Amino acid sequence: MTEAAHLGRRPAAPDQTTGRVLVVEDEPGIAGFVRRGLLFEGFTVEVATDGRTGLDAIRDNPPDIVVLDLMLPGLNGIELTRRVRAAERAERRVPLPILMLTARDAVPDRVTGLNAGADDYLVKPFAFDELLARIRALLRRLPPAADAARIGERLFFADLTLDLGSRTAARGERTIQLTTREFDLLALLLRHPNQVLPRSLLMDRIWGEDFFGDSNVLEVFVANLRRSLEAGGEPRLIQTVRGVGYVVRAAG
Ligand code: CA
Predict the structure, then answer these.
(1) Cα 229 from Cα 237, distance rounded (Å)
(2) 11 with 134, same domain?
(3) Helix (H) / strand (E) containing 81
(4) Residue-number span of the structural domain to which 159 is assigned
(5) How much distance in Å is there from the Cα of 154 to the middle of ligand 1?
(6) Last residue of a domain, one of 125, 140, 155
(7) What is the pLDDT of residues 70-126, one digit of tens each?
């Protein structure tokens, strides 16, 4: 390569994350808009136009991420998410990142979606760049399969173990399946045991500066995390510090 050509070359884009995306959306206009945009960005895209077809596609040929409309004919997005998460728990698989698309102002729907196990949501109508940013953020959190350096790296607190390589959690002998963001949130708290982490810091680190959704999203995630972490009757480890944030420490 000549020096001129070298100098003229554009620097590598800061984020080249791509992958296989399954779009489950019954509105052809939105499905087409999302599909075209993602193809242009180098993603492989499959579209399912109803919930059952989407669920079949996830089972037959799991994508790297699902963009899932909430309101779908047949099986809706909430039910689909529940089934996917239940299967993952039963088979002890790494959870598939799910980005849910919801109608504007349907706040209860969003919380229900996150409760069902979605990792994030986007309110319609949305800008394509916003969708792309959310997809890339979720894909960057996938377990680094080829990253041998992280295999075996673990965080411990009391009877809780977090394996950063396999992205699995355990309390004692009990293995716990967590969604992508639940895992990230727990890892962040565990890196700072006995230290109160402010809500704003947690929101910023887990959802990014571009997050402008409901502030109760954090509460929903903490509640889900606690439910998973305490399902075997174990004592609470994530404590609320009212008006400030959360801390991992032994109760009492
Ligand atoms: Ca729909």
Answers:
(1) 8
(2) yes
(3) helix 77-91
(4) 145-248
(5) 41
(6) 140
(7) 999 989 999 999 999 988 888 877 789 999 998 766 667 777 888 888 988 888 888
